[in-house]
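To start, one record:
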Amino acid sequence: MELNQYLEMFIEESKEHLQSCSDNLLELEKNPEDIAIVNEIFRSAHTLKGMSATMGYEDLADLTHKMENVLDAIRNEKILVTPDVLDVVFESVDHLEAMVMNIADGGDGKRDVSNTVAKLKRIESGEPVQQNAVELAAAEVATTTLVEQNSLELDYDSFEKTVILQSTEQGFNAYEISVTLRADCLLKAARVYMVFDILEKNGDVVKSRPTVDKLEEEQFDQDFKVALITQTSVDELHSKILKVSEVEKVTITQLTKDKFITSASAEAATTIEEVRENENPIVPQQKGQEESVSQKTSSPTKHATSKTIRVSIERLDILMNLFEELVIDRGRLQSISTEVKHAELNETVERMSRTMGDLQNIVLTMRMIPIETVFNRFPKMVRTLSRDLKKKINLEVIGAETELDRTVIDEIGDPLVHLIRNSVDHGIESPEVRRANGKPEEGNVTLRAYHSGNYVFIEIEDDGAGINRDKVLNKAISKGIVSKEIASTLSDKQINELIFASGFSTADVISDISGRGVGLDVVKTTIESLGGNISIESTEGVGSIFSIQLPLTLSIISVMLVEIEQETYAIPLSSIIETSIIKNSDILNAHNQKVIDFRGKVVPLIFLEEIFEVPRKEQIDQDYHSVVIVRKGEKLAGLVVDSFIGQQEIVLKSLGNYLTNIFAISGATILGNGKVALIVDCNALMK
């Protein structure tokens, strides 16, 4: 078996264990006396160490082992939990996360962690963490694990004896190794595989009891025995096997010529049936043993662990693509059914549509991931930033169980990191300033997520300094983003949103304007590319709220189909406020732009036939125009089209690598009649 097939599982489980370490370390910081939390961290670290050693990532296993030593000393009350100690453990977890990410990216997981290891060793030996002394690389003292035992545990045939004796004469070591797994071990076969992988990397396995087949089928209690020929020392072998998760005890006995002679009488008493059982893995066990095995393998605990399975993202993507094809065919069938007007066909298509609706919900749900996979990284990030900035900050996370499509999850992480960094670094004031302003020294940052309709809303709220209106205006005017005349007419909300303008983010902004605006134009662009939008509310001296609106999924969307000449376009319903029919006389001119009065607001008209250069067979004078009113944040626009076709769910397809920069087109879809419709990017039209 190749270890590569376990790589994906190793990476996912490592991330889970490291996240558990981070979460529990944050809890331990609040409750430094709680040894139960330390035990949880220790268990996660111990499992990670075993997995890493088995997969051959020794650097990862070694750093985890050093961290584990410190945790063990804490839980045995040899070391007290202090901020300095926790800083080093957090630093270790950061390194471990970086190593796992390197492995996930195809690397070898190696990283220079000598400085952190030196700190861990100082902590373990009771020295001050910040001691500036020459580091002593004290070798770990291995415990003697060689057991003196006269009788042999395994039965050897003449060939196996010859192999073992000849190997010892040639300078090799021959050992009988007894391995005991923990009583609560659930994946016994997996642990056996890990042990065998270590043994085979360090020598040649001569024999095992039970046989390999029975070990793979978990037909054993908690212990098994192996005969090994190796050049590896007994202490090194013992240490490597113990690194496997859920291994409780390892006993090693050296095999010598004398041992075989001593056990001759015992061998003579061995029955033919027993010899066959050891030599032939195909022969079944005795009846009593079979009953015992069946009872063990049918334990309720084992069944309980198999209710969820891991499915690779690639398989879900393939499933989604196949379903998208079905959606296209469904549209085609509905179109044919409407034209043919056959009762039974209509009934069948309707029933199929209902079934596909249910299937669509299941497929989309399978791709949904709790947003906590993104949120989990922020508590530790905020802790690190607050310590670096000498601030006191409490991060509250609400709604981490809210689910989003994986595609959106993959893209939203970096914008959220940027927004939280801004809140922590430049929104929350220093303890001295907060105290002078009559605020508590500890600032609060709230990260909130919740569903509303077909959208997910994410809010980042802080009780910091807010946005200084005058400084934002002065900076925007100096950068040429707005003129003095326009600046005097802007509302507070419009002024706040100036920080999202491209070119507003400069080094000067960081020191002059509460740090707001640093890279926020990039944040806004990323969110809008996901079909979402971002807004901000801020009160100077009170705080700010950044609000992000995102669609639940990007794969299947609802659109309004419209027609221009003979061409069909799709406008996402998420951007549409309403549709309207207007008269020519309703169209006004303002600053060389055609506009209409929509509910008291001046709304510019955008003629899509001009934007997309749709050729007309003949020019016609129309008394009426069909208009789709769309919104981007607070901005409104009217898209002028020839006619409305209707609402439909469509599959969003990219235009491929050759058509990457088509203005105001975000993709395409195949309609029920087989024609291609382009999907209009309303955000691009309203810049």
About this structure: The first strand starts at residue 173 and ends at 181. Residues 131-144, 263-306, 506-518 have pLDDT under 50 and may be disordered. The radius of gyration is 34 Å.
